[in-house]
From TrEMBL, chains A, B:
Complex formation: Homodimer.
Site, as annotated: Important for catalysis: 144, 195
Transmembrane segments: none
Gene behind the chain: leuB
Cofactor mode of binding and number, as noted: Binds 1 Mg(2+) or Mn(2+) ion per subunit.
Function: Catalyzes the oxidation of 3-carboxy-2-hydroxy-4-methylpentanoate (3-isopropylmalate) to 3-carboxy-4-methyl-2-oxopentanoate. The product decarboxylates to 4-methyl-2 oxopentanoate.
Protein name: 3-isopropylmalate dehydrogenase
Domain Isopropylmalate dehydrogenase-like: 7-362
Length: 371, 371
């Protein structure tokens, strides 16, 4: 594979995944036709749809394709249909395997408020207007992956469930480096979050991040915060943060809490990055923050913007097409500012549109901006 | 100790603890004098102040006194002075030992909004006005206590930090029972929260809670939610919840998040309960949600209401003095409605008061209400 290849594996997944991915594909087509981006795309299955067809939430073959791709675009996985499957067959296991086998250790979760949508937040508008936080969540370690794990039956007939929270120096350092680098390109502030007051893994986390700050990133303003306090501070005064770095479990809750602060979950993209290879290229997976929304799946109502903004992150981080990324983000901003809204971000006086109409408006706006 | 004894161990702790506890003592005095409550109080040390005097954050002697008491009232522990102590000496270890050795497995965290303070929330007023959630957090199990734990050095020179998340059937059942019982006395709705999609300990949690619901509490409306979604839902629409039951770590973050939603952390009490003895009496510890606030300690500025409302929970849950508890809560409500405010809940047009003046107003209001 040449370093100029742009091989994209598209995993639309379950629920609304295929619908929103449809708009992404049309937009990819626009970039091919109008901007000469030479993408090579292929489709694959992940989650419940893969289980239904192959009996596993992700096949070895698809896993290998993801590893070979330059970037993976994912829709969403899961739904009530698969809720009672055994643990190893659950749709989420497919997503977790992708992250694990691609070694995507850094999950970038922007919490960003579009001006036109600031009113949509459950927080008072002045607290979120202009909000721009980047949460970097460690994604391949910690308690979601540690061993031993499982449920065992004790001699007295009781059952015991076990999971193991574990982090090593290098796991902490590599994700902290991504966060320090991002901070340098943003407001130069990094807040590291753990529970060092009650967990040894948190003590290690704090010490290793501080050590990096003291040696390689003296120019970045580093602070530390306990995870429960961070949950409070996000609600109290979210704009105090620039970049947050935290572990897998705390990052799961805190990034979702921050996402909801924006009031527009249907707008939020994410990127998951691995280590850089010799050419500086990182394995990468891009996906919207929202889930598979089984309640509205197949109805053409889903908001495709989060998936489209994930495409924008892909253009920026995987293919160095910053200008194209800017163009797509600008188009999304403009379409929303003009009042086009899917149900999830609908507001009085705005125009309610479906998934496909929203995609149409994006393409029209891209045409206008590129004219 | 007779079953009518009212032996209270008072552990004021660090930072603003002693100040707010001073007002609690005056109020206890009021109940003794005016309502004939025969309390027997004793003071003890916990946290940094205990470490400074005895070299440990809690002595065996004080631990025994706590076990022998009918109720323990605690102020707050911790502060920057003790932040760099070895793990076992940290102030928080004293508090954790109290919870562990008294087997206080159920932490009751009301998130309640006083009408006069609804505007103080960072959330839009209509989303929090009348908010009344009860979060029941498991407090003696899970990843803050599980073994193995610690930091080890690996052969390659790296370090590894480990903690263990572990729950047994009976640990889950006993805290779930407290939550089901509370739900019955409230809105009859219980939401159980875990990460069953990625953690086996969460699978066990969900199964055991559901089993209890199916057998002993069929009348209670039971639902399940993933912890990250719960963090979002608390921010989006907190009034959807009545009682939430969750594990130690998730409860730590979610109860603090819910507390901050109220906008008035200085108002929130908590109770931690153990198993009922033959006489139906539970070991119990009552403490405000706020921390030791070292930045304002010793300045007479701290809000004593959370500690006073903790006293009210003590009257209700440990001494069956529901009427007295109502009286104290009513007094707190009235004083705030009249516009008396410490700095943390100050609002335009209100009267700024210090810790002692707030205590004075509570006593005056109690006099008025009891007249
Ligand atoms: Mg999540
Ligand atoms: Mg906490």
């Amino acid at each position: 594979m040449s370093s100029n290849s742009k091989k994209i594996l598209i995993l639309a997944g379950d629920g609304i995944g295929p619908e929103v991915m449809g708009e992404v594909k049309r937009t990819l087509g626009w970039f091919e036709k109008r901007r000469g981006s030479g993408f090579e795309t292929e489709d694959g299955l992940v989650g419940g749809c893969s289980f239904d067809k192959h009996g596993v939430p992700l096949t070895d073959e698809t896993m290998q394709k993801a590893i070979d791709a330059d970037a993976v675009l994912l829709g969403a996985v899961g739904g009530p249909k698969w809720d009672n499957l055994p643990f190893k067959d659950k749709p989420e296991r497919g997503l977790l395997r992708l992250r694990k086998d691609m070694e995507l250790f850094a999950n970038l979760r922007p919490a960003l408020v579009f001006d036109a949508l600031a009113e949509a937040s459950s927080l008072k508008t002045e607290l979120v207007k202009g909000l721009d936080i980047m949460i970097v969540r460690e994604l391949t370690g910690g308690v979601y992956f540690g061993s031993p794990r499982g449920i065992e039956t004790l001699p007295n007939g009781e059952r015991r469930g076990i999971n193991t929270q574990v982090y090593t120096t290098s796991e902490i350092q590599r994700v902290a480096r991504v966060a320090f680098e991002l901070a340098r390109k943003r407001g130069n502030k990094l807040c590291s979050v753990e529970k060092a007051n009650v967990m040894e893994s948190g003590v290690l986390w704090r010490e290793e991040v501080q050590k990096l700050g003291d040696t390689e990133y003296k120019d970045v303003q580093l602070s530390h915060m306990y995870a429960d306090n961070c949950a409070m501070q996000l609600v109290r005064q979210p704009k105090q943060f620039d970049v947050i770095v935290t572990d897998n479990l705390f990052g799961d809750l805190l990034s979702d809490c921050a996402a909801m602060l924006t009031g527009s979950l249907g707008m939020l993209p994410s990127a998951s990055l691995g280590a850089a290879d010799k050419g500086g290229k990182r394995k990468a997976l891009y996906e919207p923050v929202h889930g598979s929304a089984p309640d509205i799946a197949g109805q053409g109502k889903a908001n495709p913007l989060a998936c489209l903004l994930s495409l924008s992150m892909m253009l920026r981080y995987s293919f160095d097409q910053g200008e194209d990324a800017d163009l797509l983000e600008k188009a999304a901003n403009n379409v929303v500012a003009k009042g086009f809204r899917t149900g999830d971000i609908m507001a009085p006086g705005c125009t309610l549109v479906g998934t496909k109409e929203m995609g149409d408006e994006i393409l029209k706006e891209l045409d206008r901006l590129a004219a």
